[in-house]
Amino acid sequence: MDGFVVRRLSAPVAASVQPMDRVLAIGKFDGLHKAHQAVIAQAIVRQNEGRGRVALFTFSPHPRYVLQGDSAYLRWLTPEAERGRIAMEYGVYESFVTTFDSAFQAQTAEEFVEHYLLPLGVKHIVVGYDFRFGRSGAYSTRDLARIASAHGVECDVVEPVDLDGIPVSSSRIREHLADGHPERAEALLGRLFEVRGKVIRGDQRGRTIGYPTANLQLTEPFVIPREGVYAVRCRLDGKTSNVGMMNIGRRPTVEQNGGLSLEVHLFDVSADLYGREVVVGLIGRTRDERRFSSLEELKAQLGRDAVESRLLAARFT
Hints:
By secondary structure, the protein is α/β, with parallel strands linked by helices. It has ten helices and 14 strands. The chain has helices spanning 34-48, 63-68, 80-89, 102-105, 109-117, 141-150, 170-178, 182-189, 205-208, 295-312, and strands spanning 5-9, 22-26, 53-60, 94-99, 122-128, 154-158, 162-163, 166-167, 193-200, 214-218, 228-236, 240-249, 261-266, 277-287. Helix 7 packs antiparallel against helix 8. The longest helix is centred in the C-terminal third of the chain and has 18 residues, at 295-312. It is elongated. The mean pLDDT is 91.
């Protein structure tokens, strides 16, 4: 297949959606972490048994934002396009996205199955153990399985995936990133936490002290980790991989009341990166951002940051 296809839904599902046999993996899939991967893996098992083609069924905006007004959830661990890129690595090429609003929340279990799932040709459903839906999350996987079964649709409920005795979850990953621990997020994701962006023009001040930086403008609403300096691994244009360091912060040494910026310095790369797409994977955090008394003091600290970042990134070189 050429790429990942996203289809947006509203109830009743439009007749334009081809009702082919499908195995629907249902969830928010924010992060596509190890627990989500277990759901997808089980859906692939059912696909291989001839139950139908696997597709994700997910929601937008994030339910946490709609239900609790938490603006942090306007940003995603895996925004929509990124989710598609990762899903293809697991053999999934299609997603149905429904608007999570008051009308969707108000549905009964029967209405959810009949208005959304059956018109898609669902033959098998796979969900995580904690999936809930309907007003105030009144319906559980048991309700979903019961209603689906009445229509001849089977439902698999995937048990929790634990790490150190605690279930893997998107909220835990967000907490680790907010605390500045990308290595802990990596353990739950099964890969580095990454952000993607285009390199834009900056003031080029880094060049004057020997540390040219690529100023990153995020292409999607990614979660932004705690401010500070990080060791990173980067992919340029989806191909070349390099290690370096990134500052997430407000550049207090050279700006007063500066806005938040993401600046990446790649080791052993001299090419002009302006306009190129960069995917930045966070390996570990080396320190807080702070104000220095001079550019020379900043330069000396950057030298120490580079040594520590190279050590943290050694497993990728």
